[in-house]
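dumping this here before i forget
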Amino acid sequence: MKYGILSTASIAGRFIAGVREAGLDEVSAVASRTMKKAADFAARESISRFYGSYQQLFEDDELDIIYIPTVNVNHYHDACEALRHGKHVVMEKPFTLTSADAEELFKLAEEKNCFLMEGQKAVFLPVSEDLKDLLQKQKIGELRYIDFKMSHTNHPLDHWMYQPAMGGGALYGSGSYIIEYLLYLLDDPKLQISGTCQRAASGTDTIAAFHLKTDKDVIVSATIVTNVEFDSEVVFYGTKGNISIHNFWKADRLSINYHDGTSQQHCFPQKSEFVFEARHIHECLEKGLLQSPRMNAQRTIECVRLVEQLQKQWKENED
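structure:
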């Protein structure tokens, strides 16, 4: 399969590295809103074709699949255009800003007989598969509580991530990592969400603090920040011990700590955290699937719905 990369966003280079490490597909073209940006990116990433407009990439008949890491608010429009041109689509988080848009995209993908998936690399990591197995086998006893902490302070204040109209903010930026990780690990529990936020002068949330209550008797606490630094970690607490993972969305190891004082570490060395997602996409396309069995429409739409619900709660509380 031949990939086209829609935008020269920094995450695109990391995704390309994963595709190339997998060694199954080819990155054939890239597009930016300016020819210079496209040319510079193509030279840096050794891509043969580059375009100064997104439309040219959509119209490239040699491409099979489009990877979309554009600005959050543009995801729905960009995916629509790619699907209407008969391209398979992998789109970065957050998938869309409304559940109605997410539902419409999956409906369009089905009509066009195209594969569509949200790029949620965390659920494809070997460490995540190991974690799910440990939880299902109750290696730390009955799971009772999960605590997520994520700190992302790499965006300057003039970045679009601090612009509400562009879909910026801590929750839009990273909330899907947490919610979709839970949906995968706990086999789609019913979730109730509530929380609060702290806002920047621009209006975006710089701290998103929320709780999720599951129908499986597990409480989840989550904090995402963009204005202070601390270690990003998730800890799963059971009746016999806990499992901790640093930077869970790209991790290659986990630690198991038992109440009797013993501990274990499980390691899964990797070069690119995107390689496992790239392999999965290839397998889905080889099988002619329109959805990923692991990162499917149900999980994506449910995540968008919960984020949408929390954003609505915040607005109502502030009005």
